[in-house]
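Q: I'm building a small set of examples for a reading group on sequence design. Run inverse folding on the following structure and report the sequence directly after it, with nothing in between.
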């Protein structure tokens, strides 16, 4: 199959899948959806939990949790809810378990549900407020720049103005109640860049910068008791890799790396700032791993699909979580969704434009409404209306209609021709060279007069290849994993690159290729070579069998193991 044919095959597949499934994938029958969301709401039952002695968590008093760490002669408060009254209620409940004075406040990040009750916990005392060095700037950005848009969008997303009873819960907490006159902010007074070690009330704490859900996110680690407070980098629902209330791009792989950093700690207790604590080293490790794998899966398969030529509308059909992740109790889509995440990953790398010339300058909503009204009044078939729009010179409408035509009948050559003619007309009428070139190129592609193809890595110049740093080269492999071929694979590959004295481990774990720059013990495949040779093998510049024969590469299992490993990736 040629590249173009493959893309059209995938598009057709996506469209067919889309056609027989009109509703978004995450929607269920009305009653089932409400029941599932209500069941999820049990996580927010209002109470103070003590998962292990000395750690108290006020759940359900606001959108987030308040965590109280009890020390010898005082307590440390981690996160402070969204308003004065909610903070006061949580504090009163926490005072039932300890009356020790508050010695410090830690803000895990800048979001409203964590910061705007801080004054209540300080109780008028001058106590230190710990946060990442960028947290204040993030608070100011919302207050000074985005206040109106974020306000509108937050009100809608959290349902704050809905009549009572309609909000079942908000996915990460019962509900959010921000009240402007109840903002009780304390600015961070003790900030750090990467890591801060501090002892408060006799409790040894490490604060680690861990960009993820926000760029200023931190986690708190209690090394003596192996207790991890991850902030909002993990909670019991699929993460908000994108939030529909609006956010700057969230770097998904940076977030995954932050979770890997947490996994390395070997925590026995996980106390997130939303949903409920998790106790047991095995459970914590398994949950952190599934969570980061779910995120990497969505990221990598989106990038893979982008490189196969898919746009956002096709990608949301192409990328789905396999059952072992989709059904994981911490990955149900009660906050973020896979589909929104796919769009966000696409947007983060390539921006708003889908890559389809029809989307360059779509009809305005008003114009589309007029055209649709005319189209329905005149009940000719879509092909007839597409032809008519073309001959009447309504080229954008002709392009949009012919896209529907092609969706309904992927084999209709005439649909391609009408779309090509419409795009050609749009291109010829555009004074913008970028737009003109895109319209005309796509029209030529539709007519089979041009094929863009893809770059051939096997002709990369040697100096270019040698200059490619090995770490991003290895990371790029992950995004080419053919996940559907690797869903039953559990394979650990270790790479020792002698020329650069570096070791990588790639764990192919049920559809995710997780890369670490460490020598993980007991690999299934142990590959010893140079970065130079490995880059040549992966880019098809060097035949692995020849490299093996001339001792440029060594692997237990021989060359067959290497070839089998490589066959799991797009190349
Ligand atoms: Zn939060």
């Amino acid at each position: 199959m040629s590249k173009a044919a493959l893309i059209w095959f995938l598009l057709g597949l996506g469209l067919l899948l889309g056609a027989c499934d009109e509703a978004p994938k995450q929607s269920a029958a009305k009653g089932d959806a409400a029941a599932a969301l209500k069941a999820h709401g049990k996580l927010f039952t209002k109470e103070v939990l003590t998962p292990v002695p000395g750690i108290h968590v006020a759940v359900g008093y606001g959108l987030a949790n308040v965590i109280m760490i009890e020390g010898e002669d005082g307590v440390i408060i981690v996160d402070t809810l969204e308003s004065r009254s909610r903070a006061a209620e949580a504090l009163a409940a926490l005072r039932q378990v300890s009356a020790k004075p508050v010695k410090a406040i830690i803000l895990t990040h800048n979001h409203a549900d964590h910061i705007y009750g801080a004054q209540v916990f300080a109780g008028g005392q001058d106590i230190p407020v710990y946060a990442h060095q960028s947290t204040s700037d993030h608070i100011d950005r919302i207050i000074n720049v985005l206040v109106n848009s974020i306000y509108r969008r937050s009100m809608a997303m959290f349902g704050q103005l809905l009549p009572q009873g309609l909000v079942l819960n908000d996915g990460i907490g019962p509900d959010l109640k921000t009240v402007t006159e109840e903002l009780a902010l304390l600015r961070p007074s003790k900030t750090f860049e990467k890591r801060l070690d501090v002892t408060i009330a006799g409790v040894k704490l490490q604060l680690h910068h861990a960009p993820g859900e926000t760029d200023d996110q931190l986690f708190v680690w209690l090394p003596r008791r192996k207790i991890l407070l991850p902030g909002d980098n993990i909670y019991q629902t699929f993460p908000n890799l994108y939030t529909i209330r609006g956010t700057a791009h969230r770097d998904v792989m940076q977030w995954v790396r932050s979770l890997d950093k947490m996994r390395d700690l070997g925590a026995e207790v996980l106390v997130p700032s939303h949903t409920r604590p998790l106790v047991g080293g095995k459970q914590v490790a398994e949950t952190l791993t599934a969570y980061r794998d779910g995120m990497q899966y969505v990221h990598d398969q989106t990038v893979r699909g982008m490189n196969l030529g898919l746009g956002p509308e096709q990608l949301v059909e192409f990328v789905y979580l396999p059952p072992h992740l989709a059904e994981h109790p911490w990955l149900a889509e009660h906050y973020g969704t896979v589909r929104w995440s796919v769009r966000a990953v696409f947007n983060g790398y390539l921006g708003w434009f889908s890559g389809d010339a029809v989307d360059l300058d779509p009809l305005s909503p008003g114009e589309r409404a007029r055209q649709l009204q005319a189209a329905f009044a005149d009940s000719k078939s879509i092909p007839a209306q597409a032809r008519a729009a073309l001959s009447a010179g309504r080229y954008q409408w002709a392009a949009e209609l012919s896209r529907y035509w092609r969706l309904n009948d992927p084999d209709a050559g005439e649909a391609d021709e009408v779309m090509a003619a419409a795009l050609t007309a749009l291109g010829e009428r555009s004074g913008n060279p970028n737009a003109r070139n895109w319209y005309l190129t796509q029209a030529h592609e539709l007519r089979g007069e041009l094929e863009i193809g893809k770059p051939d890595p096997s002709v990369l110049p040697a100096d270019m290849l040698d200059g490619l740093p090995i770490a991003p080269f290895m990371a790029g492999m992950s995004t080419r994993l053919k996940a559907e071929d690797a869903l039953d694979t559990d394979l650990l590959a270790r790479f020792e690159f002698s020329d650069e004295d570096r070791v990588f481990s790639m764990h192919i774990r049920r559809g995710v290729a997780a890369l670490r720059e460490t020598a993980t013990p007991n690999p299934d495949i142990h590959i010893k070579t140079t970065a130079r040779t490995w880059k040549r093998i992966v880019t098809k510049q060097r035949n692995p069998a020849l490299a093996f024969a001339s001792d440029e590469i060594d692997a237990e299992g021989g060359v067959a193991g290497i070839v089998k490993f490589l066959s799991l990736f797009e190349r």
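The two ends are 15 Å apart (CA to CA).
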